[in-house]
């Protein structure tokens, strides 16, 4: 039993390093939603941390929980209320549960070719890299570029090093920078105090509004990245283990059937997050448990000092981590380069995803159609 548990959940230096492989994606989205929608900081951090711990223990691999990206962007840009956000989270939890129990999610998994999944991963990787280079790394101007340059050099020098994994050093660099130039320890100490999440029940109107405004726009990205692409990455990194589509979609659903009632933001699984944890050293669920424990501790004891806490994670540092996550995610398309038609289709789908409104909807649907047409034409030529 102990050996089985150690293989699934370890807490060594590499797991601690991998724990920060997804922070560049998660933390800014959490902060943005908290500010835009006026969410309760304690509830958001505690629930987000709890979902990480749940997925890490349940899967025994770096299977993270991430904020739902399409929902987060809509909430931040349109400044929607927390009630609508929680209603949207409950709505998509119900939708995913229906897809799971009816078996429709398995049909979708069989219907969408692997080349389309790779194209979605390329699109997401491009989007993450673009966000890092355009918004995060330049955030502190010249000092930010210097900070990002040092972090970049550290990661390049130590990437893959199991004795000195890089993410821990990069995060410590960011915290040191924050303490020297952004925030004082006294501010953090002033925010110390024990807090618990707030219980609530989303109204029927909030669920219906959230369904239309948030859940339906989110669904194609969730199917493409959170379920199909995540299963593909899990099989790429852990070929000896089997991960069913239904299992991943059910845990996705369960998280969102719990989050809204305790003030947590809607969460999903994510192929990029798993790649991020793995890139920086995580190999078991321990990296995700460590990551979740950080949010849990911040929510329970430091949520009153949220404004000061944000400064401990400078955007240039988050940007460099995000950049490597995006690049490694794009690298997964390497198994499609041997067939020219498939590789070109991956490139096309990736560009559609990042260039067009509702790009992931178009990339998933049009890409699937083109993949079948391409296969049909090749089959016809062979006769």
Any overview of this molecule?
The chain is mainly alpha-helical. The chain has one domain (2-187, 203-381). The chain has helices spanning 2-8, 13-18, 23-37, 41-59, 69-78, 82-102, 104-111, 114-136, 141-158, 166-181, 185-190, 204-237, 245-258, 271-279, 286-301, 306-310, 315-330, 340-355, 359-381; strands at residues 66-67, 267-268. The chain has a two-stranded antiparallel ribbon with strand order 1-2. α8 runs antiparallel to α19 (359-381).
Topology overview:
Layout: H1 2-8, H2 13-18, H3 23-37, H4 41-59, E1 66-67, H5 69-78, H6 82-102, H7 104-111, H8 114-136, H9 141-158, H10 166-181, H11 185-190, H12 204-237, H13 245-258, E2 267-268, H14 271-279, H15 286-301, H16 306-310, H17 315-330, H18 340-355, H19 359-381
Antiparallel strand pairs: 1-2
Helix pairs in contact: 3-5, 3-17, 4-15, 5-12, 6-12, 6-13, 8-12, 8-17, 8-18, 8-19, 9-10, 9-17, 12-13, 12-14, 14-17, 18-19
Number of separate helices: 19
- Give the strand line-up of the largest sheet: 1-2
Rg, nearest Å: 20 Å
Proportion in β-strands: under 5%
Name the overall outline. globular
Can you tell me the residue ranges where pLDDT is under 50 for at least 5 consecutive residues?
A: none
Mean pLDDT: 89
Helix/strand/pairing category: mainly alpha
**Number of structural domains:** 1
Q: What level of helicity do the residues show?
A: over 70%
End-to-end separation in angstroms reads 55 Å
Would you report the number of β strands? 2
Summed up, what is this model?
This protein is mostly helical and 383 residues long. Helix content is 74%, strand content 1%.
């Amino acid at each position: 039993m102990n050996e089985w548990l150690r293989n699934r959940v370890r807490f060594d230096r590499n797991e601690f390093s991998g724990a920060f492989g997804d922070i560049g994606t998660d933390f800014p989205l959490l902060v943005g939603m908290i500010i835009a929608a006026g969410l309760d900081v304690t509830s958001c951090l505690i629930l987000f941390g709890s979902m990480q711990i749940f997925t890490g223990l349940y899967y025994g691999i770096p299977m993270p929980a991430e904020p739902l990206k399409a929902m987060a962007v809509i909430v931040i840009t349109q400044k929607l209320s927390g009630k609508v956000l929680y209603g949207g989270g409950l709505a998509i939890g119900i939708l995913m549960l229906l897809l799971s129990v009816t078996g429709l999610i398995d049909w979708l998994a069989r219907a969408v070719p692997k080349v389309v999944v790779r194209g979605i991963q390329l699109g997401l990787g491009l989007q993450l890299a673009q966000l890092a280079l355009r918004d995060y790394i330049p955030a502190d101007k010249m000092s930010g570029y210097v900070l990002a340059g040092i972090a970049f050099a550290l990661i390049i020098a130590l990437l893959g090093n199991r004795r000195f994994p890089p993410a821990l050093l990069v995060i410590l660099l960011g915290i040191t920078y924050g303490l020297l130039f952004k925030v004082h320890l006294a501010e953090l100490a002033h925010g110390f105090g024990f807090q618990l999440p707030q219980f609530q029940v989303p109204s029927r109107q909030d669920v219906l509004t959230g369904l239309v405004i948030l859940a339906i726009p989110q669904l194609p990205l969730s199917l493409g990245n959170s379920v199909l692409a995540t299963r593909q990455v899990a099989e790429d990194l852990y070929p000896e283990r089997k991960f069913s589509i239904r299992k991943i979609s059910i845990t996705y659903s369960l998280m969102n059937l719990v989050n809204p009632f305790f003030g947590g933001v809607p969460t999903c699984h994510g192929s990029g997050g798993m790649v991020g944890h793995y890139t920086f050293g995580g190999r078991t669920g321990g990296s995700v448990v460590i990551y979740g424990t950080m949010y849990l501790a911040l929510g329970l004891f430091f949520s009153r000092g949220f404004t000061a806490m944000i400064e401990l994670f400078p955007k240039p540092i988050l940007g460099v981590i995000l950049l490597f996550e995006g690049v490694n995610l794009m690298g997964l398309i390497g198994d499609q380069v041997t067939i020219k038609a498939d590789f070109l289709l991956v490139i096309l789908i990736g560009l559609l995803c990042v260039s067009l409104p509702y790009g992931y909807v178009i990339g998933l649907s049009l890409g699937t159609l083109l993949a079948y047409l391409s296969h049909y034409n090749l089959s016809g030529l062979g006769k």
